[in-house]
Every structure is written in structure tokens, then in C-alpha cells.
Design goal:
31% helix; globular; 207 residues; alpha/beta; 19% strand
């Protein structure tokens, strides 16, 4: 796991990161799968959206439209969440606050994803017309990806748990006549250099 910040030369520094083999494999699989993907859904923890966003995935995800889901918003400060909705809304294909365990915000996120997929320019492609829209659901461990998919699919097909790393393999799951989702394991960035981010992730149970 991630090491605690160390004191060196009067300054705190982060140790080497936690990046298990299944996470490295998942990044490679996501990169390979992106040619099939129309839109990305990224699950964040509403209590710490910046800390729970994994910029390490940006290269693998490329320029595909991205819908952001601020999950566990019932546990977050309402005014802070509103500020994040405003800040993130201009930099994405849409952002919603959600409580995935109760289903709040899930339909709205799917609607935004379907809308974004229609504007990717692929709807005129003959192969695209013969299949559903495809989205990949990403996020760091324990932010609620599987809970989101379970609600979207109205079943318990993706394993859930209160510990990071429950989902270990990618899964395609049909969630509507128009859309299927690729569930992926929670993926941490290879390194966390900001002590504030490290402690936020630890307090949220993401590491």
C-alpha cells in the first residue's frame, strides 16, 4: 500500500506508490478497449472530487467525452458539492451528484452519457448503427463504480464491497436497449505526491 509521508530535509515527501499488477493490467486493457468506447463515465467521491480523480488515466482514455458522477453526495457538504458541479460542468460532457446505493443520479448520468455518445460523430458509421452505445466506467477503488452499474442494470451483476479492489476483471454489462457498460477494477495513480491527497484517500477508504 502507499507509504506514509516521510520527513526529508525538513519537507514531507511521499514514498513509492501502491500499484498492484491487476491495476497495471487494467490500464492496458482500458487503453486497448477505447477504440470500442463512445463515452466515459468517471465516478468520483463527492467529498473529495479532486483527490479521487485519477489523471493517470487521461492518456488511456484519450479525448472521449466524459460524464462525471459525484457519488456519495449525501455524505458531502451541499454547498461544496454545488461549487464542484459548477466547476466541473464546463470541463466535461456533464456532471451529476449521486447516491449510487439508492439510485439517485444514476438515470441522469446514463442520459448524459447517451446524449454525449450521439455527438461523437460515430452515429453515422455503419458498424456503430448495428450496436449499442458503449461506455466505460472508471474510478479509483471504493468510489462506487459497481454500485453505479448495479443500479444502472437494475441487478447485482457487478460485485460490490466496502473495501478497495473488489472488482478485479473487466465486465461488459447491458444496462439499457441503447447502452452497455464496461466495468473495470478501481485504479489508483502510480504515485501520489501531495500529502493532502494521500490523507484524503486514506480517510475515504480508497487505499
Amino acid at each position: 500500500m502507499l507509504r506514509c509521508p516521510k520527513q526529508r530535509g525538513g519537507r514531507r515527501q511521499m514514498g513509492q506508490s501502491w500499484f498492484p499488477g491487476h491495476m497495471a493490467k487494467a490500464v492496458a486493457e482500458i487503453r486497448q478497449s477505447m477504440k470500442l468506447i463512445d463515452v466515459v463515465i468517471e465516478i468520483l467521491d463527492a467529498r473529495a472530487p479532486r483527490a479521487t480523480s485519477n489523471s493517470h488515466l487521461d492518456e488511456a482514455l484519450g479525448s472521449k467525452p466524459r460524464v462525471l458522477v459525484l457519488n456519495k453526495s449525501d455524505l458531502a457538504d451541499a454547498r461544496a458539492t454545488e461549487a464542484w458541479l459548477d466547476a466541473l460542468g464546463t470541463a466535461s460532457a456533464g456532471v451529476v451528484q449521486a447516491n449510487c446505493q439508492r439510485g439517485m443520479g444514476v438515470k441522469e448520468a446514463i442520459s448524459l452519457a447517451e446524449k454525449a455518445a450521439r455527438f461523437t460523430g460515430q452515429e453515422g458509421d455503419r458498424e456503430r448503427c448495428r450496436r449499442r452505445f458503449r461506455t466505460v466506467v472508471v474510478g479509483i477503488p471504493n468510489v462506487g463504480k459497481s454500485s453505479f452499474i448495479n443500479r444502472a442494470a437494475r441487478r447485482s451483476g457487478a460485485k460490490t464491497g466496502d473495501r478497495p479492489g473488489v472488482t478485479r476483471a473487466k465486465q461488459w454489462i447491458v444496462v439499457s436497449p441503447e447502452m452497455e457498460m464496461l466495468d473495470t477494477p478501481g485504479i489508483m495513480p502510480p504515485r501520489v505526491d501531495d500529502p493532502a491527497v494521500w490523507f484524503a484517500l486514506a480517510s475515504l477508504g480508497c487505499i
